[in-house]
Amino acid sequence: MKLASLKTGGRDGTLIIVSSDLTRAVVVADIASTLQFALDNWPDVSSGLTGVANAMESGTVENEFPFDPADCAAPLPRSFHWVDGSAYVNHVELVRKARGAKMPESFWREPLVYQGGSDDFLGPRDDIVVASEAFGIDMESETAVITGDVPMGTRAADAGGYIQLLMILNDVSLRNLIPGELAKGFGFYQSKPSTAFSPVAVTPDELGDGFKNGVFNHPLKTQLNGELVGEPECNVDMTFNFHQLIEHVTRTRRLGAGTIIGSGTVSNYDRSRGSSCLAEKRMLETIEHGEPVTPFMAYGDRVRVEMLDGNGNSIFGAIDQTVTKS
Amino acid sequence: MKLASLKTGGRDGTLIIVSSDLTRAVVVADIASTLQFALDNWPDVSSGLTGVANAMESGTVENEFPFDPADCAAPLPRSFHWVDGSAYVNHVELVRKARGAKMPESFWREPLVYQGGSDDFLGPRDDIVVASEAFGIDMESETAVITGDVPMGTRAADAGGYIQLLMILNDVSLRNLIPGELAKGFGFYQSKPSTAFSPVAVTPDELGDGFKNGVFNHPLKTQLNGELVGEPECNVDMTFNFHQLIEHVTRTRRLGAGTIIGSGTVSNYDRSRGSSCLAEKRMLETIEHGEPVTPFMAYGDRVRVEMLDGNGNSIFGAIDQTVTKS
Q: Is B242 exposed, middle or buried (0-12, 13-18, 19+ CB in 10 A)?
């Protein structure tokens, strides 16, 4: 089942079910008016939603309309909890290496996470509005899961059942604000503006083996102005899978329904796969040439993030955003 | 006007208006069923809510019932954005001093903030549930504002009008998890479990001069098992007022209605005022005696946080919580 939120209808949007091939959609207001409502009441509404999705695939749904990602907010236009991991530790290792710092050994054993702004997500085709190019505007292409209610102290072995939906995202980062912010010791805030999500969120069963044991089994493709930035495999070099991330984030708290957990920038040791952000590309250039060659994004630049299945079909639809001045 | 949320009615509670003396309450479902709904639609609903509040003060409201903070969730039982400042920089300076580290000069010029968990707030009388006393369980007594929608790039001079409501809170902290987490460089996560809020949220006009120019003008009182921990003045040694905090947090993003901004631990240089957390008390002991004497909280301990006005009346009602094992 694929779910999305139209921008119309209020701050939480209007829930729609989207056909598997992303061409058609239908409003399901009689079952759940918003995705947050659906997640809040998942045991009561999921079978009804699945019924509509199945009818849609067999062509027996009334009031269908053509699906257009440009009409969509993020699947959750706002959320009560957005926590982003750094599960591809080789990416973190590289960041450190570029600035001549050794990464603590513990980073391989315990996940790094930060909590991101969740009151103002961007839709898949929304502009990335930034006050200054000098902030160092970058994309970070990632995968994510949306959970139901998860108890405190959940173990990785039990975590799979709490994953309701899957997405991809662009964790927009302002690179030149990061060093100053991290130096203060409290983590990211100004350096992580609104995050953008894929047009649709998808139930794990829809991916089959494409999502297994808390890992996505497809490459994630990032393009800038039509040029490939990278296409690393999500299932390669992922140090912590989503089950392990759930164990980590529930150590001292519960998670409310609709919590979004991100993988962090997808990154492979195999550099021929490219990168999921410009910072990584610049770090590799720095290590090789002593300084970066690739600039960060400029106003007018267009970033596209997409995951294709084995048959070349888009699973979540494309994030396709233009950088603009505020 | 004073507003609260009953625990009944769903994940976002049931909005009630509470009498100024905190003795009586009334449901206002015909105007706004939840506080989040009220904040989402503030221009449309605030005059209606004020009308009920005024009628309540003049004793002409029907269906009143006795107000009991034990029936309350946090005013916002969950929120889309909870960002906590560290506006009392002398507290930060002290933390550093206790571990022999100098605080960067820039901390006096630019606010420190971190984003806290907002999907699972505690009500004013809810237990603080922690898996282990070894985590170093501490209170942090703070003040907070709730904003409406705030544009990106808001200046401090224009920020006052975006503050809709005021609260006090207990930013529960797990001290022994903090050093390891901060060492990783991404800020707090496991070390900051669910935050507890006062029974009611109050419009700024209700405080008169008690809230002016983005500063609270009353002391904030913290008690542990009936003993005073501290009663520092909120308007003394506050390096950044709430208007300045709003400027800081909107530099690169908008704030959605219902964003909660915290002051950080209230702290005065005048040590006779005591502290708003045990960590500060322990740091002062460490500086004086070489090691802390006061232990962190244990199971069964009871923490109470309250702000009284000039006449000794409770403005927000008391946060009164017991530490229990999960």
A: buried
pLDDT of residue A319: 98
Q: Cα–Cα–Cα angle for A171, A176, A182, nearest 5°?
A: 80
* Residue A44 in contact with partner chain B when CB distance is under 8 A: no
Q: Does B248 touch chain A (CB under 8 A)?
A: yes
Q: Count of CB atoms within 10 A of residue A261's CB? A: 26
Using a CB-CB distance cutoff of 8 angstroms, which residues of chain B are in contact with residue A78? 80, 256
Q: What tokens were used for B293? A: 């004497």
Residues 104-123 of A with CB under 8 A from B: 104, 106-107, 110, 112-120
Contacts B116 to A, Cβ<8 Å: 115
Three-class secondary structure of residue B164 per DSSP: strand
Query: Which residue in chain A is spatially nearest to B259 when comparing CA positions?
Result: A119
Q: Considering only residues 141 to 170 of chain A, which have any Cβ-Cβ distance to chain B shorter than 8 Å?
A: 152-153
Cβ–Cβ contact B83 with A under 8 A: yes
In SS3 terms, A205-217 reads as: HHHHHHEECCEEC
Is the separation of the CB atoms in B66 and B56 below 8 Å?
no
Question: What integer is the mean pLDDT of A177-198?
Answer: 93
First to last CA, chain B: 36
The Cα A248–Cα A156 span in angstroms is: 8
Q: Is the pTM of this model over 0.80?
A: yes
Q: Which of B17, B126, B141, B15 is nearest to B70 (CA)?
A: B126
Q: Where are the alpha helices (DSSP H) in chain A?
A: 35-40, 42-57, 89-98, 156-159, 178-183, 204-207, 242-249, 278-289
ipTM of the complex: 0.96
For A165, A202, A217, B2, the CA distances from A208, given in Å and listed in that order, are 13, 11, 10, 51
The whole-angstrom separation of Cα A18 and Cα A167 is 14
Q: How many CB atoms are located within 10 Å of the residue B320 CB?
A: 19
Residues B71 and B73: their CA atoms lie apart, in Å, by 7
The pLDDT score that the predictor gives to residue A146 is 98
Tell me the nearest-neighbour CA distance from B85 into chain A, angstroms: 10
A102 touches chain B (CB under 8 A): no
d(CA A243, CA A145): 10
